[in-house]
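# step 3/5: fold
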Amino acid sequence: MGQQPSKQHRYEGQNSSLYTTLDAASIEALEKAIYLTELGLFESAHQIFDTVLISLKDVPVVAIEHAEVFLKQGMFGKAAQILESAIAVVKEEGSEYKIWRKKSGELPIMKTFLAYLQFYTKGMLAGILEEAEMTIEWLKDVPVEKYTDVQVKCIF
């Protein structure tokens, strides 16, 4: 994996526990894109995703944050396409890495986010219900005080 997120540094990204898949330069670029998104400078944020982070486009934390830019622009279909691509790549990877992805929450959060988007783009409620059930099953033995940032985001 990549860089361990610094415990002394406050990251803007809501999924900073997933930064372990990135190196320091990529974390810096991702954080800049997140800041730009929060400021409403969407084109500048997209430029970072389309240039600096393009080789990492299917890394879950990068895909999640890129989809967030489109979500904030009301472009639900484009956000869904980004997540669909990343989910397909995750499902193709070796089983050893898949176990880590499930434990870390990368796959559940991407699937939950995608189901949310599909509700708005296709009127599909079944996906949200299915992901809610999967999240309940995934977290049933995890004490609330031990939830990661990703686990909290999956339930909200």
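# step 4/5: annotate
The first helix runs from residue 24 to 38.
# step 5/5: archive (pending)
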